[in-house]
Amino acid sequence: MSNSKQQQEQINIELDEKIAEGIYSNLAIINHSSSEFVLDFVSIMPGIPKAKVKSRIVLTPQHAKRLLKAIGENIHRFEQAHGEIKDSEQPPIPLNFGPAGQA
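Predicted structure:
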């Protein structure tokens, strides 16, 4: 591949300080319609009956499938380097979002 073509295909991605800090989440809620997937990331604290959505990502079905594949590949590489990720039993979390709606 020529050097100029390689430069044209590069994407410059910026990451500002606030976004770089990240948001902790221990619960993801996924909903979908015929045209999009909605991923809500929540941080639930033990003993506190209320939690807020900290971040929402909306994806096309094609991008949701690419994300699933990318996460699967990264989990595979992580487990090869660090061993199997153990899945622990979690008690069911009763969720209440108020009136039901669609994305």
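Summary: Residues 61-82 form the longest helix (22 residues).
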